[in-house]
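ok, trying the design again with the full structure, not the truncated one.
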């Protein structure tokens, strides 16, 4: 009886010890996270930043003007993508998720962001809230559309391309890249703001009154967040705990302005065009096979428009002290710490598009067509 009594006490002692270890581990994890935030990427010294050459500014502005003044070529970019990538590029993908896609097997082949496997009911609930699933009528009816995808690159700082960028039919901006305070360099027109929850601007002033808000869904709580934004509801605290940074609590647009990016666009970009390995989830996140929002937006633009241009793209890792973004003082060296995206593979892809004349690089960060030309 005494032996049985002793054996019955051991689980209680063991559980207490395990609980102590768990609490200690949680505390250490929190401390490490705070330290990571405190000692983030080092900022560049503004005094040491390179000034933009006056000749380069002139050439960039002249080049953008020439692109806009040329005759718009209908269906040009789709035909060229089909020529370059053949069966790897689908000519007729719907850019945004539509109600009828709930029956498409391809949409549910993979988990987010490559598909909506296991999220059929959540997707259905979201689609019931969204009254529109395409471009606005005034853009759909336009015979030939020109897109510009504006990245966050520091190369935009000083080129003063804002006026030219505003003249494109569709202006696509990424994540929380700001317009306020930078209109001379990046313009202020926004047709599409494409992002995921953690990347959405926190300031209501960064949302264009008639622009579309295109959401990329990566995980389960992203569906909850989008539903709260569309219904203008408060996101529960327990849901907010699952995001790796603060998320917007309100997106000041109407339900008809929300769109969900078709995950087939991400799958086409990653698996077919960039030739990344098939998705394989790990304990935290994915293998290094998720394309950046930027390069995904470029592929999206080829499905939306007849001609596509880029601005603010390009990571020059050989110049670690140059500005990473146009809106802050982070150094290019900060890119060395990222592990999710394959930057070099994406750069080669964009270089191929520009050298083949499929898209234009207005700021010359990927491949500069105007740098050696007379001004």
């Amino acid at each position: 009886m005494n032996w049985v009594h002793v054996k019955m006490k051991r689980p209680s002692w063991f559980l207490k010890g395990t609980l102590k270890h768990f609490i200690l581990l949680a505390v250490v994890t929190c401390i490490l996270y705070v330290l990571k935030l405190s000692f983030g990427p080092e900022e560049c010294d503004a005094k040491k930043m390179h000034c933009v050459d006056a000749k380069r500014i002139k050439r960039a502005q002249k080049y953008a003007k020439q692109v806009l003044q040329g005759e718009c070529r209908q269906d040009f970019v789709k035909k060229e993508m089909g020529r370059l990538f053949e069966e790897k590029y689908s000519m007729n993908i719907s850019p945004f998720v539509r109600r009828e896609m709930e029956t498409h097997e391809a949409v549910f082949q993979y988990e987010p962001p490559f598909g909506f496997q296991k999220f059929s009911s959540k997707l259905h609930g979201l689609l019931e809230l969204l009254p529109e699933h395409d471009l606005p009528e005034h853009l759909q009816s336009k015979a030939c559309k020109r897109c510009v995808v504006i990245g966050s690159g520091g190369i935009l700082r000083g080129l003063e391309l804002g006026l030219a960028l505003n003249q494109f039919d569709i202006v696509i901006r990424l994540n929380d890249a700001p317009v306020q305070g930078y209109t001379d360099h990046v313009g202020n027109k926004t047709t599409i703001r494409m992002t995921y929850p953690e990347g959405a601007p926190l300031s209501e002033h960064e949302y264009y009154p008639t622009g579309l808000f295109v959401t990329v869904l990566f995980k389960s709580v992203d569906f909850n967040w989008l539903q709260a934004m569309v219904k203008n509801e408060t996101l529960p605290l327990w849901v907010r705990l699952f995001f790796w940074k603060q998320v917007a609590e309100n997106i000041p647009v109407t339900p008809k302005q929300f769109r969900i990016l078709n995950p087939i666009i991400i799958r086409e970009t990653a698996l077919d065009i960039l030739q990344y390995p098939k998705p394989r989830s790990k304990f935290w996140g994915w293998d290094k096979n998720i394309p950046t929002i930027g390069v995904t937006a470029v592929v999206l633009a080829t499905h939306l428009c007849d001609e596509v241009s880029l601005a603010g793209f390009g990571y020059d890792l050989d110049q670690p002290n140059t500005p990473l973004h146009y809106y802050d003082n982070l150094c290019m060296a900060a890119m060395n710490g990222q592990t999710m995206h394959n930057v070099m593979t994406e750069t080669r892809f964009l270089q191929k598009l520009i050298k083949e004349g499929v898209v234009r690089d207005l700021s010359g960060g990927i491949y500069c067509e105007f740098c050696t030309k007379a001004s």
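Keeping the full-length input from now on. The beta strands are 146-150, 170-174, 192-195, 212-215, 258-260, 307-311, 359-361.
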